[in-house]
Amino acid sequence: MAYDRDNRPDLSAYWMPFTANRQFKAAPRLLVSASGMHYRADDGREVLDGTSGLWCVNAGHGRPEIAAAVQNQLMTLDYAPSFQMGHPIAFDFATALAQIAPEGLDRIFFTNSGSESVDTALKIAMAYHRARGQGQRTKIVGREKGYHGVGFGGISAGGLVNNRRLYPLLPADHMRHTHDPARNAFSRGLPPHGAELADDLEQLIALHGAETLAAVVVEPVAGSAGVLPPPVGYLERLRKICDAHGILLVFDEVITGFGRLGAPFAGQYFGVTPDLMTTAKGITNGVLPMGAVFVRREVHDAVVNGSDAAMEFFHGYTYSGHPVSCAAGLATLDIYRREGLFTRAGELAETWADALHGLRDLGLVTDIRNLGLMAGIDLAPRAEAPGARGYAAMVAAFEAGILIRATGDTLAMSPPLIVSHAQIDQLVSTMRAVISALD
Ligand code: PXG
Ligand code: PLP
Fold first, then answer.
1. Residues 6 or more apart whose Cβ sits within 8 Å of residue 255
2. Is the separation of the CB atoms in 102 and 268 below 8 Å?
């Protein structure tokens, strides 16, 4: 059935995720099709995708190569059991991922989402320590403002209060976040100040004892919290402290993975290699659910060779390594490679930064941050109504023909890596008009 403004679906049954349901259903925004850099809304308008969907459609929409690979796989082997049985394309996809992975992270565990990747990585970290006789290492260190999905492991490591406050959590503690507009406002790229915040980890070690800590989990660039690039030297410092205390370092690359910064992964961009890396989203260009945990070979070997049990690791999903998702993933990697999309964000980064920082004269704008093809713009909150101005900006931007994200009063953009210079201009000039018109 073709939907349009006069022929809308019944909205009542679907309980929408991370959505103000009552507000949305009173004034819905429906997307009905997509191609290349654009969505089409149900009133027929084209909307330029400034967010790669939800940070996932890195090669743009409606790629025929992916559609063909998916159709072919569906008709060849639509599903096969993932436990105690294998199918070739899952092995092929893992091999292809290992080839683009940061140095040494060449063992791959498949999941279906970023949330599952994070929970899986935490279990691997704990299994690793146990296999080495350090089973008391079960606590997790995360960071304020961190987003690691919505599983119980991910919300425990995460640092967003609304995602945590209602639930019992796993043992975890948190470093301070690195957002410091007083010292770093309007930095281009990495903020100069704040590497010393990594020393919070030393304090948590002093408080808890290193022998109780399993893993430190951070986004190399915090995404959901409003695009927070790490201070110069910060990630290096975390790596050093983890090494000194036998704590595993997990980079959550669900957003930064697959070319967002101008390298396949942020670990490569920063020259800092984690022990585990969680991914999802761009792994299939967002077209089918899939995630993967990349594991340093020694960590894998310690678990897999460190146990006499026939089954070394009691974990997995019905759809781990789903053949159709693997087909989508292999076709996606082909596109990324063939079209140079792993490095395109680096080629555009200066243009992107110039265009964005051109907005700094707007009275409501209190900070602008950028890295690769990510951007965060902070607006001064309305008195007594935090988040209202950001939400109004998102709605106005959509009406003006661009899709952006708002988290509180921070506006985020992360366009597909195929974005043109003219489309960058359109995104930023529309943002200028939208922000200028806000009350
Ligand atoms: N880790 C990170 C770093 C993420 O950004 C997840 C884990 C969870 O992935 P799944 O696939 O379970 O959603 C994410 C997801 C936004 C936004 O605009 C961000 C995400 C998802 C939806 C919206 O802030 N990140
Ligand atoms: N709940 C029940 C009753 C199940 O049988 C299963 C899987 O067999 C699950 C949950 C887990 O589902 P999944 O493997 O898709 O995560």
1. 55, 219, 221, 223, 224, 281, 374, 414
2. yes
User: Domain of 25?
Assistant: 21-59+341-437
Spatial CA neighbour of 79 closest among 326, 397, 254, 339 = 326
Tell me if residue 99 falls in helix, strand or coil: helix
Contact of 376 with 404, CB cutoff 8 Å:
no
> Percent of the chain beyond pLDDT 70?
100
Q: End-to-end alpha-carbon separation of the chain, Å?
A: 39
Closest ligand (CA of 82)? 2
Residue nearest to atom 6 of ligand 2 (CA): 318
Query: 311 in a domain, yes or no?
Result: yes
Q: Tell me if residue 413 falls in helix, strand or coil.
A: strand
Q: How far apart are CA 360 and CA 432, in angstroms?
A: 10
Ligand 2 pocket test, pick from 290, 318, 320, 325 with the greatest ligand atom count within 8 Å of Cβ, gives 318
Specify if 219 maps to a domain. Answer: yes
Q: Which helix (H) or strand (E) covers residue 244, if one does?
A: helix 234-245
Residues 6+ apart with CB under 8 A from 346: 261, 262, 263, 372
Residue 13 lies inside a defined structural domain of this protein: no
- H or E element, residue 394: helix 388-399
Neighbours of 160 (CB within 10 A): 16
Q: Judge whether 265 lies within some domain.
A: yes
Q: Whose CA is nearest to atom 23 of ligand 1?
A: 54
Domain boundary among 269, 304, 338: 338
- pTM for the model stands at 0.97
Q: What span, in angstroms and rounded, lies between the C-alpha atoms of 189 and 345?
A: 13
Q: Could you give the CA distance from residue 13 to residue 29 in angstroms, rounded to a whole number?
A: 16
pLDDT 10s digits, 319-351: 999 999 999 999 999 999 999 999 999 999 999
Please state, in angstroms and rounded to a whole number, the distance separating the CA atoms of residues 150 and 248.
21
- For residue 1, pLDDT over 80 is answered with no
Q: Which atom of ligand 2 is nearest to the CA of 320?
A: 14
8-state DSSP, 129: H
